[in-house]
Structures are given as C-alpha cells and as structure tokens.
Amino acid sequence: MELIWEGTTEAIRLLLSANPQVLEIAVLSLELSGLATLVALVFGVPMGALLAFRVFPGRRFTVSLINTGMGVPPVVVGLFVSIILWRSGPLGFLELLYTPGAIVLAQFIIAFPVVTGLTMAAMQQIDPKLLLQLKGIGASRPQLMAVLLWEARLPMLAAVIAGFGAVISEVGAVMMVGGNILGQTRVLTTATVLETRKGNFEVAIALSLILLALTFLITWLLTVFQQRTTVR
Questions:
Q1: Which of 130, 145, 168, 215 could cross-link with 33 by S-S, CB 3.0 to 4.6 Å?
Q2: Phi, psi values for residue 86, rounded to 5°
Q3: What is the pLDDT of residues 59-70, one digit of tens each?
Q4: DSSP annotation string for 169-184
C-alpha cells in the first residue's frame, strides 16, 4: 500500500510540475496510438462492411483470419514486424525499425482485426429490410454506406474504443519494434517497464497511473458521445 501511495503522489507531482520528459512520453503515446487507431479505422471499416455484405470465394477463410487476428499475441506481431523491417528484411530499405513509424505499423496490425471484426459484427446486425429499401429508392453506393454506418454508429464506437485500448496498452510489440529510445520511441508502457527494471517502482506506478488516466479520459469521452447518441 505504501508503494501505491508513493506512486500516486509521484504521479500528481509529475503532472503538477509539468515534467517535460513525462509530458513528451505521454503526448507521443497518444499520437502514435491515435494514428494507428485512425489508420485501422480507414482500412478496417470498409473491410468489415465488405465481409458483412459480400459473398466471395475465400470469405470464410478471410473471416477466420480476422477472428484469429483479434487474439494473436502482440509479441508475435512485434516479431513479425521486426523481421519485415530488419535491415535484410523485405522492407529493410525503408529504415523504419526503431522509429515511431514502426510502432504505428505494429499497432495498426494489432488494431486492424479488432476494428474489422467488430465492424463486421455491427453491420451484420442491421435489418436486411433497410438494405433492400435503400436499394429500392435508388441510393448510390456512397449513400448506402453512409446510412449503414450511421445505423451501426453505436457498435462502431465500441470498435474505436476497443482498437484504441488494444494499442495504447501494448508493450511487447512496441518494445521490440521501437527500441524504447528516449525522445523518439519511448511511450508510457515501455517507460513503465524500464523504470520497473531499474527498481524505480514509485516512478513506474506514477507512469502507470498516468497511462490509466489518459486511457480512461479518451474512453470516457467516446462513451459519453456513444450514450448521448443512444438517448437521442
């Protein structure tokens, strides 16, 4: 209990003093995780809609891959991305390993199946009669997609929350592809691991509490919007 109290006190001190190193790490965590979630939405939402409404050869196999991806250990993703981005790897010429770009790529791979799977499930819950009505009145494909996304907006927000939560809390893959370099790739999760290894438990607890507070704040804002939409 004493360690937890000291960690809480240290977290408050770091925040109130606007510690530049802590702020830099926290902002970088939000930027990378936010970007990875956004990219996952850009690619995952259309893919989820395609799997929900289209029947094509290999669809079941693709759905199985997506469902499997939702449960793949992040450390496996980190190993895969590291091999791909390694100097002798297929994308080694990009020199992305141990850069923020590598972290975004790994986090995207983690978030993509989550967003895709939840989007597919949300779309499949829409009444098929609505789809027929929209086609009957001559709705274009963009209009059709816009209406379907609006109808599925509540579970879609759940997909955003799940995707963001999966990546901002990730440590194994981020450590492997980012290298935990101060000022470049060190985020709250990897900084927490580092401080724990150094025996600075008060600082580690403080960083953990900051991470929890940021995650709760983002999730709370999304949840408020989701529930307000539900009430309306």
A1: 168
A2: -60, 155
A3: 999 999 999 998
A4: T--HHHHHHHTT-TTT
